[in-house]
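Morning - 3,4-dihydroxyphenylalanine inputs below, output right after.
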Amino acid sequence: MTEIEKLLQEEQQKGLASLEAVTDAETLDAWKQNYLGKSSLVMTTFGKMGSFSKEERPLVGRAVNTVKVALESALAGKEETIRQESLLKGIEKETLDVTLPGYPIKRGRLHPINLSLREIYRIFGDMGFQVYSSPEVETDDMNFTFLNIPPYHPARDMWDTFYTEDESVVLRTHTSPGQIRSMREYYPNPLRVILPGACMRYEQQDQSHEIEFMQFELLVVDKNITFADLKGTMDDFTKRMFGPDARTRLRPSHFPFTEPSAELDMACIFCGGEGCGVCHGTGWLELGGCGMVHPRVLQYGGYDPEVYSGFAAGVGIDRTTLLRYHIDDIRYLRANDIRFLEQF
Ligand code: DAH
């Protein structure tokens, strides 16, 4: 063994031994300078490899490399130990104040349409109605035929319908098909349901029309249901929704699925019936259609029109929401603008 090899071996022993005693980052730094720094034995030996003879060179090279690797891996181990220890010390020293307030949780809020919907559920719930869900994608039969609108009947033009590639399937244009579905499910029991949900019409969009809108259908079927029940229920609903001063009227109208049919109007809540921009000078606001369920529709639902009668109504939830919150453009409802939505 050459002199230099001996020296290197001693250097390794010394280095490893003194590393044992190191317990903090500063001393470790000094140790690193000492044993692996520019003027350390290891590094200076690398620097003067040229001065060794051809025979010595590979021996010295191997020896210095062995020492370097040994010192470096010991150093890495020590670094990790010190890091772990200081972490533990930190945790021990820190105290946790569990009485500090946490981060505030961002609260979501309900969409104004849902606020209206909940109010509608509450009002009709009080009157003994149940909520009945029915599909948004409907058969042509449910949307039209069973509502007394046969194929090719011009009354179909009352709705601008989205048809699918399958001719017998449409996007429902109103919640009325739910009348048939709920009757078929409840038969032969009396029923009192509201059917809420989205409807779709292929319409020009403007401040009071959207392609998608929300509606709720009202349906009561029992023995001895009369037009007076319809009028009383709709008037009561309007007063509970818009306040005790709300006034309603039923205006004769036509729908294929009701006979007689009417349009439910409410005295304009903005001008008190004087006539203003919102009610287009008429003093009245349209809330929806209604009427006594047509005998043929009762039959399609399974009920015998000689024994049973019923009333139905369809009211726009978007429109109701605009009126409740004095919003002047229906497009705000689905624009997803947080500045709008945060106001409710
Ligand atoms: N389905 C009708 C529409 O969307 C509204 C309607 C009118 C529903 C009269 C009814 C009703 O239940 O009796 O245009």
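Note: The CA atoms of residues 22 and 101 lie 42 Å apart.

O.
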